[in-house]
Amino acid sequence: MKKALKVTFGTMLAMSMIGQVNAQFIPQDPENFIAVWVEGTYTKPSNNGLSVGDLLFANPNLFDGGHRHTFLSPDNQWDYALGFSYRLPCQNTRLFFHYDHYDADDSKGDIDIRNLSFAPPPQTQEVATINEHSNEFRFGAIHDLHFGDYFSLDLLAFLEYDKLRLTLNETISQAGIIGARETENKVRGFGPGVGFMTRWYAHNPHWHIFAGATTAILAADNDYHQTFLTSTVPPGFYNYDPEGSDSLVGKLDINFGINYRCAFRHYFCGAIWDISLGMRYMNIFNAIKNGNTAYNPNALDDAGIPINFSPNLGFPQDWGRWGPFLKFKIGGKHS
């Protein structure tokens, strides 16, 4: 009986000790450790290497032998990002998830453009439209390091998945004949990343300046498809659909700006909110593969004239964005 009491008492004592330890790591109010944010972005592509033909000049000594390339250059577009984080109790580490969405369109119309084997005279009328669509997902951890009252350093490690689609539509008409081409690039990449964020605090604790960067290596799948059609009799047509290819690409993301933070005095149990205004520059190196082939096929129209690819096709290209963002974040008092 005494032995049984000793075992029971020892078990209860061990369980109570484990309960005390667990109480330090399992918060009674988990909402105090959670933060959520929404971000408005106003970005544009970081490069405009989207040639859609060239102007033809009468004097061949001007503009590279009488031709001057024209480009699509999309403007800034409003878009959004969302995310949340959870700070581990009694730790300087937060788990986070971040989603960023981007969708942009741009179009341009010109006369006397040489493209898709059409060239003035007589007059040509060309219209080109570009659509860029991307989704970015990040999941990882942030560890805070504090150096006094005025400087801190966040270290990031994460996994990232990116999905990018770029579609270019070109239409040109001349003397009642129409030519149309659609080019589509798709990139899907997944891989690890690391980064840092520095924060400099003013004597007023509500304000700080931030600046940092992340980099990632993505194993990417690349798909390419292009079709061309003319309304000639008989019509000209080709469909270029090479096998998908793989690549390893690098990504760089830079952010800097200013932040204001404050706590609710009478609402939400002392929750903290902050607002950030900053700039972002992002670039994925050699993301667009344009078929990833060593040659560009030529198709012939009904008159035997080669229908060549636009000058921008057939070579890998970077893809990125840059512009300002405004971020609003709210979280528990321990977030």
Task: Give the CA-based shape.
Answer: elongated
Largest sheet: 10 strands, antiparallel, barrel
N-to-C series of helices and strands: HEEHEEEEEEEEEEEEEE
Number of helices: 2
Strands in their spatial order, largest beta sheet: 1-4-5-7-8-9-10-12-13-16
CATH topology: Lipocalin
Give me the count of strands.
16
Structural class: mainly beta
Multimerization status: single chain
* Terminal-residue CA separation: 50 Å
Q: What is the beta-strand fraction? A: over 45%
Q: How confident overall, as mean pLDDT?
A: 81
Can you put this structure into words, describing what you see?
The protein has 335 residues and is mainly β. The protein has one domain (34-331): Beta Barrel (Lipocalin). 8% of the residues lie in helices and 62% in strands. It is built from two helices and 16 strands. The chain has helices at residues 2-25, 63-66, and strands spanning 34-45, 51-56, 67-71, 77-87, 93-111, 113-114, 125-146, 151-174, 177-201, 207-230, 237-240, 245-263, 272-288, 299-300, 306-307, 317-331. β12 (245-263) and β13 form a beta hairpin. The radius of gyration is 28 Å and the shape is elongated.
Describe the SSE topology.
Layout: H1 2-25, E1 34-45, E2 51-56, H2 63-66, E3 67-71, E4 77-87, E5 93-111, E6 113-114, E7 125-146, E8 151-174, E9 177-201, E10 207-230, E11 237-240, E12 245-263, E13 272-288, E14 299-300, E15 306-307, E16 317-331
Antiparallel strand pairs: 1-4, 1-16, 2-3, 2-6, 4-5, 5-7, 7-8, 8-9, 9-10, 10-11, 10-12, 12-13, 13-16, 14-15
Task: Sum this structure up briefly.
The protein is mainly β.
